[in-house]
Design goal:
Helices cover 91% and strands 0% of the residues. It is built from two helices and no strands. The longest helix has 29 residues. The protein has one domain. The chain is mainly alpha-helical. This is General stress protein CsbD. It comes from Noviherbaspirillum autotrophicum. Belongs to the UPF0337 (CsbD) family.
């Protein structure tokens, strides 16, 4: 795994936690921020996958 894959996975996980915390507290703002962070993390993880694949070829 490269650093983008790791950072992406961490952002995705943190976003899930933030979203759940928002659900538990009734904060739609925190829920949306969590969803955004998840999307950002997944995008970064895909970018890392692409870099990894390019390096292998």
């Amino acid at each position: 795994m490269n650093k983008d894959q790791v950072k992406g996975a961490v952002k995705d996980a943190a976003g899930k936690v933030q979203q759940k915390a928002g659900e538990m507290t009734g904060s739609q703002e925190q829920q949306m921020k969590g969803v955004e962070k998840q999307a950002e993390g997944k995008t970064q993880k895909v970018a890392g996958n692409v870099k990894d694949a390019a390096r292998k070829h």
